Amino acid sequence: MPALLAEVTRSGFVESLHHGSVVGLLPDGAVGVSVGAVEDPVLPRSCMKPFQALACLAAGAPLAGPSLAIAAGSHTGENRHVELVMQLLGGLPVGLLRCPPSWPEDEQTRQRVTEPSRVRMNCSGKHAAMLAACVAARWPTQSYLEPSHPLQQLVLRTFEELAGESVVHTAIDGCGAPVFALSLHGLARAMQGLVRTPVADAMRGFPEYVGGTGHVNTVIMQQLPGVVAKGGAEGVLVLATAAGHAVAVKVLDGNPRATTAIGLTALAAMGFDVSPAKESLSVPVSGGGQVVGEVRVVF
Q1: How far does the chain reach from its first CA to its final CA, in angstroms?
Q2: Which residues fall within 8 angstroms of residue 201, CB to CB, at 6 or more apart?
Q3: Is pLDDT at 1 greater than 90 in this prediction?
Q4: Which of 35, 73, 156, 241 is buried most, with the most CB atoms less than 10 Å from its CB?
């Protein structure tokens, strides 16, 4: 069953609790950390993006470096992100993007733009990569998000192969793309396989396109060179090291505030040095402009 992973304290009082599951794999594939219901299925949400990017690459999409990183990322809608998405479209109309219009997540950029748009949406890099894959493989572009589309079937096969298990449910993600459920353990296995692919190389090399300025995934990858970090909605996070450690986290209440601390704690428990990111091992809780507590890992 799910376990207590983190607690929120305020002025010495335990105010909230985060339950869920976390699994960590050692480079040889052995389980190094197992807390909670790690064999229960989860929806990876945006943690699917690196695997979707890998399928796009296999389909022939011209992805490399920053363009491959943004295909695997959840960017913050900065101008550099928009410029790269437009390059990925390669002249295709922006209207072909099926992700919904959105305001940029980067606050400074949001203050400058006048309306939401599809290219500012955090998933637009993935969607542009999917369209590029369809063009390369001569697949239909209008229906690229249909679960039965050849590209989405390739994503499914890619994900299952890396995870070593079968998908148990297909859902629709917030951006409209199919998202496939399998166990948290399987998600960690899939990440362990991903670290040996060009997608992981691109994410490590260009973390600013996986997230953006100040984004927690970007910051962790900058602080821990060689680590791949990708979060997803509803309290999901995956981490993997170049050496082959892999961690998958699911917080049941869907709040992501503790996921990075949980994931880093699991990496540290397996002997990986996370000290350059030690400030992320807990999250400060404020009151009256001062720190009065913390979100701390308790497993």
Answers
A1: 14
A2: none
A3: no
A4: 73
- Name residues whose C-beta falls within 8 Å of residue 6's C-beta, 6 or more positions apart in sequence: 17, 18, 251, 258, 261, 262, 295, 296, 297, 298, 299
> What distance in Å separates the CA atoms of residue 74 and residue 95, rounded to the nearest whole number?
20
Rounded CA separation 235/44 (Å) = 9
Handedness of CA 180, 181, 184, 190 (dihedral sign): negative
The pTM is what? 0.96
Q: Tens of pLDDT along 189-213?
A: 999 999 999 999 999 999 999 999 9
- String of DSSP letters for 148-174: TSHHHHHHHHHHHHHHTS---EEEE-T
Other C-beta atoms lying within 10 Å of the C-beta of residue 140: 11
pLDDT, one tens digit per residue, over 36-51 is 999 999 999 999 999 9
